[in-house]
Amino acid sequence: xxxxxxxxxxxxxxxxxxxxxxxxxxxxxxxxxxxxxxxxxxxxxxxxxxxxxxxxxxxxxxxxxxxxxxxxxxxxx
Length: 77
What we know:
mainly alpha, 65% helix
């Protein structure tokens, strides 16, 4: 079960979406820094490793699987 995620679901969804769109972890952290998005722990500066860690969570894996299913359905239509 683990401890609860600190990252808001909308931020995690955006990380996954940007990753699926082809953005690197560094590029995603740069976007979040420019927009002033707080880190999951409430910090003000995103690092590449923050994004990488979020992408490795079970919640991100579920979103990636969903994105893959949705993407296959959209491409097939």
